[in-house]
Amino acid sequence: MDPLAQLKDIHLPEQINNYPLAPGWWLLAILLICLTIVSIVRLRKYLLIRKDKKTAIAQLQNVIKNSSNKSLDENNAEIIAIIKWASLKYFPRAEVASLYGENFQTFLLNTLPEKKKAAFETLSEGVFSELYKKHQHEENSTKETQLQKVALHWLTFALPVKVPKAIPLTNGAEEKTQAKPTSTFTSKSKSKSENNETPDTTNSQATKQAGELA
For residue range 122-135, what is the model confidence (pLDDT) as tens digits? Predict the structure, then answer.
């Protein structure tokens, strides 16, 4: 009897199924989804914050390109309007809307990083104070070029604002404002102490008179 005839056919093992997945794979998938969502949100926020800055720079470049077709006053007014519009997009309206001239220049200076303030002071020297004065055409052309440089410098380095904060209108304005309540409080305290001393003086005089009568 042939012993090989009793052998059975070879049976392959069943294929191992990949499901259900181990808990670690589910955690990894959830982590990747969360990271993707966070990245998309941050990217969208990044683009939205810089959208107004890009719009303002594009408008400024358009004004500079077409400056020869308009008068100096019109060009300057448009440049100031662009800076004011960009300021209102990143700072509270109450701090920006009423500013003009040198006060507006101080505001723009205070919103710049420390490393960029010196260049801004050099570029803006005398520009904002002379915007509303009449000059000769040659002087106006120079001031116009300076104002364009000032606007481009501020839009490039001041925006977007990382941490919005209250900006003083002029140097030392807040210190003077804060000093007034202190002096008022001091004067009130002084007058109050004087009022408190008055009854004591009266009582001492009454006591002295009573002693003399006795």
Answer: 999 888 887 766 65
Q: What is the pTM of this model?
A: 0.62
Q: Report in angstroms the alpha-carbon separations of 147 from 40, 53, 113, 120, 169.
A: 38, 18, 19, 11, 20
> Sign (positive/negative) of CA torsion 123, 129, 131, 137?
negative
Which tokens belong to 23? 């808990």
Angstrom distance (rounded) from CA 9 to CA 176: 101
Residue 10's alpha-carbon distances to 14, 16, 17, 81, in angstroms, are 13, 18, 21, 87
Nearest to 132 by CA among 92, 157, 104: 104
Q: Are 152 and 160 in contact (CB under 8 A)?
A: no
Residue boundaries of the structural domains of the chain:
52-170
pLDDT in tens, 79-104: 999 999 999 999 999 999 999 889 99
